[in-house]
Specification:
The chain has twelve helices and twelve strands. It is of the alpha/beta class. The chain has two domains: 159 residues, Rossmann fold, CATH 3.40.50.1970; 176 residues, Dehydroquinate synthase-like, alpha domain (Up-down Bundle), CATH 1.20.1090.10. Helix 4 runs parallel beside helix 5, helix 4 packs parallel to helix 7 and helix 6 runs antiparallel to helix 7. The longest helix has 21 residues.
Length: 339
């Protein structure tokens, strides 16, 4: 097991890579602890949960909203939860985002931790202290910055993922490589077939590298005032595509990465060979590289993104594989580009 520590301004977090769900009891209070999970995780892993009250939510992004949050608040009150309670989210990105938001707001905040059960959650959603829910389909419009006490990344749980969920997580892994790790990018290029075959040793290596990249960035800029914006690579355009089409998050991020690569090439920041390498790798990983969404509607949706600033947006572009730059792009410039 490898432990990666994240030091925040108000609290610290530890990411336990290779720890097991069965050892969750070592990290939580023995009483006054409540578990939030979804129906998919519950059906497979409930027998490994500590004997504690469990709220089982519907699986999927459609449940990540204020109605579900209110339902959980009422359940916690019925269960006798108080300001000394501890909440554990056991699940993928949706469960972690929602459980963290509930914990950060219930009775003005209680401590919480995660068991991340998907690759997406292990490398991204559960790490860094962002917690939130969607509003009217717009992603993470309501949220908080608050670090979990711990995140257990049980690599063996990835074996039960559908192939599409593995691909979703790999989009975020590639994103981290494009931001600051060309050697990881080359590693994925060389080993993509074994990775797609759920080679757990390789997956643990990728999780560890991604977590270390994100932890380093979060420690410098916990509340996304500057450097942390680089983690939005692929997400600005990708979130808008996800809102319009309803495709899985990782697939939308992949489309966003392709858009960013093409825009970076158009602006002379990325070579043609680098652009093509990025697109080819995403394709080999089973990720979408094209979208059927109307680009004009995508841009209209993007203008309600939380990264919007005035008549433009903070946009992450690539200066090569393993190096990015955040630039301010006006909506007029994006409109001219897509036309």
């Amino acid at each position: 097991m490898e432990v990666v520590k994240v030091s925040g301004k108000e609290s610290n977090s530890q990411i336990l890579i290779g720890e097991k769900l069965g050892n969750l009891h070592k990290y939580i209070p023995h009483s006054n602890t409540f578990i939030i999970t979804d129906e998919n995780v519950d059906s497979i892993y409930r027998k490994l949960f500590p004997i504690l009250p469990v709220f089982v939510m519907n699986a999927g992004e459609a449940s990540k909203n204020l109605s579900t949050v209110a339902e959980i608040y009422r359940w916690l009150l019925d269960q006798g939860a108080d300001r000394n309670s501890f909440i554990v989210g056991i699940g993928g990105g949706v469960v972690c985002d929602l459980a963290g938001f509930v914990a950060s707001t219930f009775m003005r905040g209680v401590n919480f931790g995660f068991v991340a059960t998907t690759l997406l959650a292990q490398v991204d959603a559960s790490v860094g202290g962002k917690n939130g829910v969607d509003l009217d389909g717009f992603k993470n419009i309501v949220g908080t910055f608050n670090q979990p006490k711990f995140v257990i990344c049980d690599i063996t749980m990835l074996k039960t993922l559908p192939q599409v969920e593995l691909a979703n997580g790999l989009a975020e892994v590639v994103k981290h490589a494009l931001i600051d790790d060309i050697s990881k990018f080359e590693y994925i290029e060389k080993n993509y077939e074994s990775i797609l075959a759920f080679n757990l040793e390789m997956l643990e290596y990728l999780v560890t590298r991604s977590v270390k990249i994100k932890a380093r960035i979060v420690e410098i800029d916990e509340r996304e005032g500057g450097l942390r914006r680089v983690l939005n690579l692929g997400h600005t355009w990708g979130h808008a595509v996800e809102k319009i089409t309803g495709i899985p998050h990782g697939q939308a991020v992949s489309i966003g990465l392709v858009f960013s690569a093409k825009l970076s090439f158009n602006k002379g920041m990325l070579s043609e060979a680098e652009r093509d390498r990025i697109i080819n790798l995403l394709s080999k990983l089973g990720l979408h590289i094209h979208s059927n969404a109307d680009n004009t509607k995508v841009l209209e949706t993007l203008q309600k993104d939380k990264k919007k600033i005035g008549n433009g947006v903070h946009y992450v572009l690539m200066k090569g594989i393993g190096e990015v730059e955040v630039v301010d792009i006006s909506f007029d410039e994006l409109r001219k580009y897509i036309v």
